[in-house]
Write a structure and sequence with these properties.
binds 2-acetamido-2-deoxy-beta-D-glucopyranose; 5-stranded antiparallel beta sheet
Length: about 400
């Protein structure tokens, strides 16, 4: 009978205990302070909304209030008030108001925490999920292939840790529209990369407590050579310069090879120059451009003709015209010189006639100026050079000539 009574008592007591401990009362809540706790720093799981006076409270790791999960118990009236539980660790401590402080946070501190507060009125409970944040590491962009050739499928990966979010960017431009991002943004893929996709790319790692950008990665898309063309003199005169230029679109710059009628030439430049072309220089010129990265080689050729220097009677016939021209020019110049000398002599003669006034003389400026002494004082060379310089001087009106004359004197 006694045993029966005992079991009856037990059955009766358990629900009472459950009522005291598990009755969830809405109203208390936990704030994490700071909102984004960082590894190595401390956090307060701050309890608010408690109604009544606290008799004691327990903190548990996890969502269940089992003895095995208990971190600590706190009895404000006792000394010491805090009693360690099975999950106790020295970095944890309770505060009189019901809060829990965890210092020197570790990654393993992540997870759910539950508080159970017993007041003089009721038991109240709340849980919170604690996340411990770490600063993002500086991201590094890696390419799956190097060197990158046009039409390659290229994947860039942003290598970083602790990021919640990854962003991609391209300096002075936007990401190519056909580039696709993976779901977590860690990779960006160019299905068939184009030469226009050449540029500087970077990624940025972000989480609530930090942000970091990678160094730029220069993505160089190698291509070509294509659009090979040869420009220059395709018809040259014997003795003149034969100049050809081979041009192409290519990254990196290609190596060039020239051939003349199939024979390799020494020039390794895009430009081929032959001074003093001879008829032997005529023929087919072939330019070959090779890109060491793409492995592409392109060839194009042009036909060059060299016209021979004319020989025999033709030069005489040709030069007759030239000779006539030279002779004619010489005659004209001679005539001008003779005329100038004549004018000079005439002028001097007139000047001398000033000392013996000659009423017939009308046009001479020096006479009208009426100051023979001054005129005589002027350097004759200057005077004459002025007159020769302006062959029309004798026909000039006296007034104009006076102006020129006075200018001369001033200088
Ligand atoms: C943490 O709590 C949430 C609800 O608050 C629950 O869904 C989850 O299962 C809990 N996790 C653990 C590990 O207890
Ligand atoms: C806590 O929340 C984070 C997201 O903030 C989640 O990834 C994690 O699984 C949660 N942990 C638990 C124990 O619920
Ligand atoms: C890429 O593809 C285009 C079109 O098919 C072609 O013209 C070009 O030569 C290719 N580039 C390389 C480097 O193979």
């Amino acid at each position: 009978m006694a045993a029966k009574c005992h079991s009856c008592q037990g059955i009766f007591i358990l629900p009472v205990l459950f009522c005291l401990w598990l009755e969830p009362v809405r109203g208390i809540s936990i704030q994490i302070n700071p909102q984004y706790p960082v590894l190595g720093q401390s956090v307060t799981l701050s309890v608010s909304g408690i109604t009544g006076n606290i008799r004691f409270f327990y903190w548990f790791k996890g969502s269940n209030i089992e003895a095995d999960n208990q971190i600590l118990g706190y009895f404000p009236g006792s000394s010491p008030p805090q009693t360690p539980g099975k999950q106790y660790f020295s970095r944890a401590s309770g505060l009189p108001g019901g809060s829990l402080v965890i210092s020197d946070l570790e990654i393993t501190d992540r997870g759910n925490y539950t508080v159970n507060v017993q007041t003089d009125q009721s038991a109240q409970q709340a849980s919170v999920n604690l996340t411990v944040y770490e600063y993002v590491t500086k991201p590094v962009v890696k390419s799956n292939t190097s060197p990158v050739k046009e039409n390659d499928t290229v994947t860039l990966t942003c290598e970083t840790a602790n990021a919640d979010r990854i962003l991609w960017g391209r300096r002075r431009s936007s990401l190519p529209s056909n580039a696709s991002l993976s779901k977590d943004n860690r990779t960006v893929t160019f299905p068939s990369i184009k030469r226009s996709d050449t540029g500087e790319y970077y990624c940025e790692a972000v989480n609530p407590v930090s942000k970091s950008s990678s160094d730029d990665i220069t993505l160089t898309v190698n291509y070509g050579p294509d659009s090979l063309s040869v420009t220059g003199s395709l018809q040259v005169q014997e003795g003149s310069t034969l100049s050809l230029e081979c041009s192409t679109a290519s990254v990196p710059l290609p190596t060039y090879l020239w051939r003349h009628n199939g024979t390799e030439l020494s020039s390794k430049q895009g430009k081929l120059t032959i001074n003093q072309a001879t008829p032997e220089h005529a023929g087919i010129y072939t330019c070959t451009a090779s890109n060491s990265v793409t492995g592409i080689t392109t060839t194009t050729d042009v036909h060059v003709t060299v016209s021979e220097q004319p020989t025999g009677t033709t030069p005489e016939a040709l030069s007759t015209g030239t000779v006539i021209g030279i002779v004619a020019a010489a005659i004209v110049i001679l005539a001008l010189v003779i005329a100038s000398i004549y004018l000079f002599v005439v002028h001097k003669a007139r000047k001398k006639s000033v000392s013996n006034p000659n009423p017939q003389s009308k046009s001479s400026a020096s006479v009208e100026n009426g100051n023979p002494a001054t005129t005589e004082g002027e350097p004759e060379l200057q005077y004459s050079s002025i007159n020769f310089g302006q062959r029309q001087a004798p026909k000039m009106q006296p007034a104009e000539e006076n102006i020129i004359y006075s200018e001369l004197r001033l200088s």
